[in-house]
Amino acid sequence: MKKYPPFVYLIGLLFVVNLLWMNHSVSLWDEDEAAYAGFGMTMLETGDWVEPAYQWSVIHRKTPFHFWSVALSYKLFGINEFALRIPSVLAILLTCWFVFLLGRPLFGQKNAGRAAIILATSIQLPLMGKIALTDASLLLFQTIGVLSLLNYLYRPSWKWNASLWFAMAMGILVKGPPIILLIGGMWLLLAIFHPKRKHLIGTHPWVFGWLAIAPFAAWCYASYSQDVLLWEQAGKDIPFAEWWQEEDNGHKIHLLPFLWEWYVLRRIGGSVLGQSGFWGYHLVVLTVAFLTWLPFWFLTLKASFKSFFKPSDKVLILSVWLAIGWLFWEFMSSKLPSYSMGAQPALALLMALQIAELETQEEDSKMLNFGLALYAFIFSIVSIALPILGVYLLGDWTLVYLLPMSLVLLVLLIKVLKTRKNTEQLFQYTAIFGGLFMFLLWTCVSPVIEQSSIKSFDKIVATAYQESGENKAARLIFTGLDIKQQKISLLVYAEQQFGAYEEMHAPEAMQAFLENEAVVLVIGQDAIEPLQKAFQKAKIPFEAKKVLHRSTDHALQSHDFWVIGNVERID
């Protein structure tokens, strides 16, 4: 077994700890993660592994791979936040491993290893491992597919072709078109510009491409068959084609028409939910993603743009990767930070090559010095501003978490700056800083966020459980929730704790409260005044517990909840 330096084991351990740390105690993030949690729960409850379905989650439906992995994780580890995030943790771990394993034949062991370390200690990639989104799994299959294609380009082999098309098939099941755009676009550019373009013929996309689409096609057929059955059960009053295109609240009801309209037509022609941005949006996103690697970032950018005009052999293939994985998305109207994630392994590999080149230079690099200066400035500001903002926004209690984090970051930052004359040491301490920064982020910042009123939905359900006398059989009723209070995580926690929930208007909720059975009302802002009057009219004290909530999609304005149970009254 090959021995690696202690530094590699330290970073590996830190990476694994970062991916798993606090995953059990950080509550669900709305909207996507909570919706995916609901999809996984529904699949286990109903046995329907074809159609992702959950209340308030219509626009979050996607192709099924990620929801299958969530449901399987629930089956193995129980329904909880830790199990929900296991598929993303594994996907990010494997992404870094395959950057090393598949990048090694192309770029050498040292460069591939450095690239994997850069990704593991960056910002966005580890974050994607701690939130149960589809992007982590997609990035895994994009990375395997692209590196398999590039390996085939230099050393044609059946194993590279098999892994290429396997990754393509799985990536399509994860999220549909993005992996086709990335690998298909790269195949075309390499076929035009690369000297070894003839080798690409051996990948036989005109044959294996259809095989890669087959699992997705089988799932589409299963979904279509279910819709036909539903149409027949509905009585066939209107033609199937018309029934299949029906809408509710501006969205297609049935899955396949919805996916085509929402994820293809709308995003080609514009954006959805205001998810647009300026040209250069993804440059900003990628800069933030590699913020912990800012000392080497500007060297990498310079090499990226320079390589488009005078590329070396290996830099050419990375340039093609960047052209499709990054620049392509700059021209799209629809923009999200995750779109350009597919380019991050290419940037990490290019950064590793620049670090190797830097080791051979005797003179100081101006780009490196500029990156170091900006790096020191940004993280000094972060270290100083964190405790100040914590006290200003939330109170003195946040100093217990944020002040130690700031002190540790400043000490580490000084250590990084002291190594600036030695490239290898600078690389190592930058990696350690990045890994510890992410560890401190989850250890010190996430508890502050969890205790704040922006993450209150689990607390609302916990309060309701207390008000029920810890009776899981009690009726949990939501009433008068305004649009900013209708968050999917509230329903997920309600279903986990009580098994079921009901939604009622205020008069019906009051009537249920007066019945001789255990009832807990969770009252939103739209029903608080009518219910207070109803309680007064019924001569019942309104002794509801108020749970503070500030909406992150409404400028942190208050959208508070009130929770009241009738257990004491009926006893």
Automatic annotation (TrEMBL):
Cited InterPro entries: LipidA_mod_glycosyltrf_83 (IPR050297), RgtA/B/C-like (IPR038731)
Localization in the cell: Cell membrane
GO cellular component terms given for this protein: plasma membrane
Topology of the protein relative to the lipid bilayer: Multi-pass membrane protein
Metal-binding keyword on record: no
Keyword set includes Transferase: yes
Annotated GO biological process: lipopolysaccharide biosynthetic process; response to iron(III) ion
UniProt-listed Pfam families: PMT_2 (PF13231)
Protein name per its UniProtKB record: Glycosyltransferase family 39 protein
Assigned keywords, A-Z: Cell membrane, Glycosyltransferase, Membrane, Transferase, Transmembrane, Transmembrane helix
GO molecular-function term, one example from the UniProt record: pentosyltransferase activity
PANTHER family from the UniProt entry: MANNOSYLTRANSFERASE YKCB-RELATED (PTHR33908), UNDECAPRENYL PHOSPHATE-ALPHA-4-AMINO-4-DEOXY-L-ARABINOSE ARABINOSYL TRANSFERASE (PTHR33908:SF3)
All copies of domain Glycosyltransferase RgtA/B/C/D-like, residue ranges: 62-219
TM ranges: 7-24, 82-102, 136-154, 166-193, 205-224, 279-303, 315-332, 338-356, 368-393, 399-417, 429-449
